[in-house]
Amino acid sequence: MDDKKAAILSEIPRLRRYARSLLRDRDSADDLVQDCLERALVRLDNWQTGESPRRWLFTIMHHLFIDQMRKVNRRGEAAMLPLEAGEAQSAPADQVESIASREIMDALQAISPDRRAALVMVAIEGFSYAEAANILGVPAGTLMSRIARGREELRGLLDDSSRRRSIRIIEK
C-alpha cells in the first residue's frame, strides 16, 4: 500500500502543471490536484499494481475538471481566471527567451480548454495520442483534430504577437 502512495506522490508535480494549464489559477489548480489525490486515495484499489499511476491520475483529474466546468456552466459563473503578472514567472523578463516563453504561455492560455488539454497531454506531458485520447475520453481522431486546430490557433496567436513586438512607435 505504501508503494502505491509513494508512486502517486511522485506524480504531484505533473498533476499541478496540468491543472495550472487547465485552470490558469494557482489556487484553483491546487484545489483540483487535492481533489484528484483525495479521489485517488479513496479508490486506491482501482489502480493496478505494477502500472504507472500517471494515466490513471490524469484521467481522474480530467474528469474532475469536466465536472467542475459543467457546474460552473450551470451556475453561469466565470470559469477561467487570467494569470496574474507575477504568477507565471518569478523575475522580470530580461532576455528574449523569457519573453518568447511568456508569449507562448499566454497564447496557450488563450486557446479553448479542449484544445489546450489535448496539446498539454501530448506535447508537454508526453502521452501518446492513444493514451491522451483515453484519458480525455475522446476518440483518437477527435484528439488529433483538437491538437491540429490548437497548433494552428497557437501559430496564429504567436505570429500576431511577434508582429506586434516588431512594430515600433516613433514619436516626432
From TrEMBL:
Keywords: Sigma factor, Transcription, Transcription regulation
Domain RNA polymerase sigma factor 70 region 4 type: start-end pairs: 102-154
Domain PhyR sigma2: 8-62
Position of the signal peptide: none
Keyword Transcription: yes
NCBIfam families recorded: sigma70-ECF
Entry's family note: Belongs to the sigma-70 factor family. ECF subfamily.
Name this protein carries in UniProt: RNA polymerase sigma factor
Organism per entry: Mesorhizobium australafricanum
Taxonomic lineage from the root: Bacteria, Pseudomonadati, Pseudomonadota, Alphaproteobacteria, Hyphomicrobiales
